[in-house]
Amino acid sequence: MKPLPNEIILRPRFQLDVTETKELVLQKLETAAYPPFLVKRLDEHVFIKFDIKNNHFWSPQLHLQIDELDETNCRVYGVFGPNPTLWTFFMFIHFIIACLFIIFGIWAYSSSSLDKPYHLQLGLMITLIVIWFALYFFGRGGKQKGKPQMKELYAFMMKVLT
User: Fold this and answer.
1) DSSP assignment letter at 116
2) Is residue 5 within 8 Å of residue 124, measured between CB atoms?
């Protein structure tokens, strides 16, 4: 088993080998839900997250995939990630900023080619860069807020599996 890193990276991953059958591990995880954890199973995928009372904007979730190695062993692949709605929102905002940056860049290039002033476009492009950096640091701060809950999810999973 690889140890859980101290530094939160984008969607930390781990894997561990378990000396139990795949179905037994899936059953253990499925029946182990107790507050504040919610466990949902879809085939060989298990999602562990926090209940509404303990959930905040930056709460992570743990996605586990259990693969059978042989009749008595299985491998658990785990991925920590943000709430899918939050992740989609952040990607949408980044996409909009990138599109606006390209549009303003084309506008600035056209103005420059026509020997017209293009300071407004450059100012807007710089503003978009500043907004992008602000989003980056906002996301980093959010990951730090979610770190304790990530450790709780990991401890819960290890308690269930051992």
Assistant:
1) -
2) no
* Model confidence pTM above 0.70: yes
| pLDDT > 80? residue 3 | no
Structure tokens of 1? Answer: 């088993």
CA distance 101 to 127: 9
Of the candidates 64, 80, 82, which has an alpha carbon nearest to the alpha carbon of residue 26? 64
Provide the residue type at 22 as one letter: K
pLDDT on residue 1: 52
Sign of CA dihedral 137, 143, 148, 151: negative
Cβ atoms < 10 Å from Cβ of 33: 15
In 3D space, the residue among 93, 41, 85 whose CA is nearest the CA of residue 65 turns out to be 41
Pairing of strands 37-42, 45-50: antiparallel
Which of 20-24, 84-88, 124-128, 149-153: highest mean pLDDT? Answer: 124-128
